[in-house]
Specification:
Layout: E1 7-13, H1 21-35, E2 40-44, E3 62-70, E4 86-90, E5 96-103, H2 104-112, H3 126-150, H4 167-171, H5 182-190
Parallel strand pairs: 1-2, 1-3, 3-5
Antiparallel strand pairs: 4-5
């Protein structure tokens, strides 16, 4: 099966002490791996790129999205509920904003709930921690990109666009739980 390029998304991620280049690279690679089967190319925008022609913005298939990493959420969420790990906003006309917010502290707390290789996160070697946090961050970003490319705040009952994910799925190597449903894939195809 041959998948044609549908959309090219360049992500601009502002580095902070909590968001290293390695973490960004791992997150972008994970989001790209999830979206590649659907003809969506995701990569990191060159420094200073805002969607200019020099970065590849030669037609309407190119989009520049900004990732804003929030280390501490200002509002609290109800006990027992950890809140969203990422967010994108929609204008009154239904158009998604080209900005994705990710909540790093919440992502790290969420990861701490799970175990991988039988070990709690506090016992993971640093390289394993970077890999897993990057993978989870990439999957959170991929979900928010789904809202952007599908142009909908709606969620699916399963797959990438379901509203609640398990920490074990987000951290595990398999991308199988992060496929689009047939309905979402069809909606994406209709947008071509």
């Amino acid at each position: 099966m041959l998948i044609a390029l549908f959309l090219h998304i360049a992500l601009t991620v502002h580095r902070t002490p909590a968001v290293s280049s390695g973490l960004i690279d791992a997150a972008v690679a994970e989001a790209a791996g999830i979206w590649a089967p659907y003809g969506v190319v995701i990569d990191a925008a060159p420094d200073g790129c805002e969607g200019c022609a020099a970065c590849g913005a030669t037609d309407d298939s190119y989009r520049a999205l900004t990732i804003v990493a929030v280390e501490r959420r200002r509002s609290t969420v109800a006990p027992g509920w950890h809140g969203a790990l990422g967010a994108i906003t929609f204008a009154p006309d239904g158009a998604p904003a080209p900005v994705i917010t990710v909540f790093l502290t919440d992502i790290e707390r969420f990861i701490a709930l799970g175990q991988l290789a039988g070990l709690p996160p506090s016992l993971w070697p640093e390289t394993m921690r970077q890999e897993i946090v990057g993978r989870v961050l990439g999957r959170v970003i991929a979900h928010e990109i789904g809202h952007y490319v599908l142009r909908s705040p709606q969620h699916a009952t399963n797959g990438l666009m379901r509203p609640l994910q398990f920490a074990s799925d987000l951290a595990a190597p398999s991308r199988r739980p992060f496929m689009l449903t047939a309905a979402d894939a069809a909606r994406l195809g209709d947008r071509r």
